[in-house]
Amino acid sequence: MLGLIKYPVISDKTTRLIQGNKYTFMVDKRANKFTIKKIVEYVFDVNVINVNTLRSPRKKRTVGRFSGYRPQYKKAIVTLKAGDSINLFPDI
Fold it and tell me: What would be the CATH architecture of the domain defined by 2-80?
């Protein structure tokens, strides 16, 4: 069950969202909002207020004469209670 959260997403947009107490994670496609909430609360010992999820569309990609599809992925944007935070980089 803990393997449903893969890794945190680090980009310019997600670092701006961290200031608003929102953290973004890549999650397994089978994960639902309830399980994501329970896992984040258990692993990071925080209170989760809201979970928003989004799935990317499967897009066709052509490289030279070979064509295929980009893989689908699912992101979860987790909103924490005021005062709670997740330390994504403990060594820095």
Answer: 2-Layer Sandwich (3.30)
